[in-house]
Amino acid sequence: MIYKIIIVNYHGYSDTLECLESLLKSTQQNFQLFIVDNSLEDVDFEMFIKWSHNIPLNINTKFPELVFPTTDKSINDILFIKEEEIDHLKLIKQKIIFIRAKENKGFSAANNIALKYLKEQDTFDYIWLLNNDTVVPIDFLQNISDKLNKSSENIGIIGNSLRYYNYPEKLQCVANKYSNWLAHTFPLYECMNYSDIPKKELYNLIPIGASMFIKKECFKEIGLLEEDYFLYFEEWDYTCRAKKKSWKSIIFTDIYIYHKHGTTIDKGNNEGKSKTLFSDYYLLINKIVFAKKNLKFYHLPTVYLSFAPIIINRIRRRQWDRVIMIFKIIFGLKFDLK
């Protein structure tokens, strides 16, 4: 199995380097890494350059056995380019490619910078969209390769369990169930002890966006991520689009990575605004965007009604700015997060 791994960085170089070091320790090295830097300033990209030159950097980790000792990098295996340059490259041979995005247009748009290049390539089996705030066990890729070799041809979307980085015995969850009537997902096995969940294969659920594999043939048919979502709903939208083309999803609950959960969002938290406001806005506005794009017209009334308990909850908390925001979202009015 050959993998193309895409990681988006936004002012989180330390997390990204921790993730990269864990991947470079993997027993399965048949992959190429694309790191898209969405940061507003040059600091992160400069740190990646230092890392590529083996300059010692402070990487804090709770999993030293998966990260240290740091890998000795060869500058010939690493490429640094700008977003506008990748369109002119026919075949990139380096193992690690750092891409400086022109601007931060969201998670989907950042992934699409690398995906547009991969759409013209054929030398891989799977694309792996991976959050930068993750740590990957040494045998993860080998284990998932063994399972994918046995999976049916119409499996196009693949997910795995996510364990909390700070509480590794606990699960973030393994996948999401969803309701078309509410345009809402329900995490499966959320916060349960990993040792207590059934280790099996689950079908036709939504993988967690922090770790989602896409089969090459599925990607070639479905295409890029939808950029209407600045944040959230990308994996739900892609899984839904794939399902309409008869592709199925599978979740391997007995294979896991560690996820810090929320670190990426916190880093991109719009110049100090609370995470709740930032998260609320994109969760709620994208709920409507998704429903209008992917659901039937008769689902929309209940989707809008599902905002009622959210409004009541915000009133109960006296979060008046959130209440105003929700009404503006419902009526299609602009709400300024700044």
From TrEMBL:
Give this protein's Gene Ontology molecular function annotations.
glycosyltransferase activity
Among InterPro entries, the record links this protein to: Nucleotide-diphossugar_trans
Q: Which domain of life is it from?
A: Bacteria
SUPFAM superfamilies in UniProt: Nucleotide-diphospho-sugar transferases (SSF53448)
This protein's UniProt keywords: Glycosyltransferase, Transferase
Q: What does the similarity note say? A: Belongs to the glycosyltransferase 2 family.
What's the protein here called?
Glycosyltransferase 2-like domain-containing protein
| The organism of origin for this protein | Apibacter mensalis
